From TrEMBL:
Boundaries of every PD-(D/E)XK endonuclease-like domain copy: 4-235
Full protein name: Unannotated protein
SUPFAM superfamilies assigned to the protein according to its UniProt record, in alphabetical order: Restriction endonuclease-like
Organism: freshwater metagenome
Gene3D superfamilies per record: 3.90.320.10
Pfam (any one): PDDEXK_1
Length: 263
């Protein structure tokens, strides 16, 4: 709502680079989709980040304990690529891209789920089988959740499935998460009931936000506070909550997913 910038995390930035390389991989002819080609695309993504996002390059250099000088990004390219390349190698151990012909990559979805309110996001990859079955795929550079915690990880995928269903009228046959950090694949076959529950949850979150606008946003301390970039604004840490911006700047008619890499 406040749209306060968040410090880029090294994990998220690595994820951006890997996503870029995997997206570009499918621009190549099938027989050229190999680790070597993906690594070259990774280096291109690193150099492009140096041009478009020096702060991101700086964060990755610091994480790698290299001199914090984004202007020297090209000199550090080989070192940075070698740190991230194992994630690409893991990808190739999980699936064979030479046998895939994606329907869409980095697909934008934006659809209304109730009057005056919609959901939007970006799907990493959509595959459609010759018989018409749809598979939604998401890449994660982090590790798979522990047993019993898969449901929260799948919420994002059910969100995408809901969007696809509302856009096309078809429920995806398969939701698939590729965890490159732990060499694991999480698969789920959604049913209509699952997507209706997801829709109700999204509308419930919307209602909670609307109520909090009237009553105030109270901090909810937890172990996750250690990862929060906004402690300096939190009353629990001696900060002061900013004034709520004018509704014109935040009262969006859409609910949007945010890509995470640690999950």
């Amino acid at each position: 709502m406040d749209r306060i910038p968040e410090e880029p995390s090294a994990a998220a930035l690595r994820g951006n680079l890997v996503h870029s390389a995997l997206e570009g991989l499918f621009d190549l002819p099938a027989h050229e989709r190999n680790v070597r080609a993906a690594t070259a695309l990774l280096e291109q993504a690193w150099l492009a980040m140096a041009e478009s996002n020096p702060a991101g390059v700086s964060a990755l250099l610091v994480d790698a304990q290299l001199p914090n000088d984004p202007a020297q990004a090209e000199s550090f390219a080989a070192h940075m690529v070698s740190r991230i390349e194992p994630l690409l190698e893991t990808y190739f151990s999980l699936e064979d891209p030479t046998r895939l012909n994606p329907h869409a990559r980095e697909m934008a979805v934006n659809v209304s789920i109730t009057e005056g309110f919609g959901i939007r996001g970006f799907i990493d990859r959509v595959d459609i089988a010759p018989a018409g079955q749809v598979r939604i795929v998401d890449y994660k550079t982090g590790k798979a959740p522990r047993a019993g915690f898969e449901s929260s990880a799948m919420f994002q995928m059910r969100f995408y499935a809901l969007a696809w269903w509302r856009m096309t009228g078809d429920i995806p046959a398969m939701l698939q998460l590729l965890y490159l950090g732990s060499k694991e694949v999480l698969r789920y076959e959604p049913a209509e009931h699952d997507l209706l529950v997801t829709e109700r949850k999204i509308l419930s979150i919307r209602a909670q936000i609307q109520q909090a606008v009237l009553e105030g946003f109270e901090p909810k301390p937890s172990k996750l506070c250690g990862w929060c970039s906004y402690q300096h604004l939190c009353p629990k840490y001696g900060g002061t909550i900013p004034e709520l911006p004018h509704s014109d700047s935040w009262e969006s008619t859409t609910f949007e997913t945010v890509r995470t890499e640690e999950a």
